[in-house]
Amino acid sequence: MRNSLWVWLLFLAAFYCAWLILVAGFGYWDAARENWPMALAMAIGSYAAGSTPMGGGTVGFPVLVLLFDTPASLGRDFSFAVQSIGMVSASIFILCRRQPLAWSMLRGAMLGALVGTPLGILFVAPAIPELWVKLAFAVIWGSFGVLHLYRLREITSHGEIAGSSPRRDFRVGLLLGALAGGLAAAVTGVGIDMVIYAALVLLCRVDLKVAIPTSVVIMAFTSLVGVAVKSLAGDWQPQVFGNWLAAAPVVALGAPLGVFIVGLIGRRPTLLVVAILCVVQFVWTCSAEWDAMGQLGLLMALIAVGACLLVFEWLRRLGLRMTAGNTLNRKIPAVHTELSGAA
């Protein structure tokens, strides 16, 4: 592990040199200094990005959109930009430490995201109103929070290191990567990490020590795809660069720090706090947008959360049935062997 960490340290050195050239050589220090509140917010967001199945944009989005009252499209663009540093740094750190990953599902999800994310950015996101972007973010992470408030003990008790069917996991990852990349990440800047994480812990019953690092890597990959597509299309919100300058030096270290510290304190306390914050941001969004939503909008948001939870529960039951089937299949050959020996 120590012999591999030089790759991560080299990445950090290259990034900080590039950042210093920008702020000192090209005169962007004032832009970075003016956006210091975002750096402070991302100190917390980057820890969550490395220690939970939540991208750094999960904190950056509500801070920009709800606290600073900026457009939702700015929150989405900032999520891609900041995660392209923080989540990538955390991913390199994870790979250097040789942490186990659910490679079959991850490969499928990467391929799906490579197709779905550009299509979503170019064709889906421009058609979504700002209010719907805010509500989509609130619903995705609100349902994630509720799920963990009542399923946390079960989720943290899984012991599978990887899925039991690599071909199936690849196909599931491919489908979910395309859908989540095009309909969640492309619209809000986050979400594909939570979708892949949910499939791993609910459907495949995978250990959090595998599921969370896998979700970090898929979000890093999707963020890079998002940055590339938006850069080629020239479709960045003007305020993204200043906020990125302020936050990037923080998340480059903060996200890997989250990967490291959560191994010391355990994932259950962190996930519990994050789950509560996810529910709080849902309530906050609905309160802030009450004039635009009204009672009908609130009802639709609650129905959407309920629909997400139903999907989660369906995945969980399907995972339980597959686990029972795999256990039975392992027992039958063992019994057959015993009977053959007795004969």
UniProtKB/TrEMBL annotation:
Membrane topology: Multi-pass membrane protein
Pfam families: TauE
Coiled coil regions, renumbered to chain: none
InterPro entries with a match to the protein in the record: TM_pro_TauE-like
Keyword Chloroplast in annotation: no
Transmembrane segments: 6-28, 40-66, 78-96, 108-125, 131-151, 172-198, 210-229, 241-265, 271-290, 297-315
Annotated localization: Cell membrane; Membrane
Keywords: Cell membrane, Membrane, Transmembrane, Transmembrane helix
Family: Belongs to the 4-toluene sulfonate uptake permease (TSUP) (TC 2.A.102) family.
Descriptive protein name: Probable membrane transporter protein
Organism from which the protein derives: Microbulbifer taiwanensis
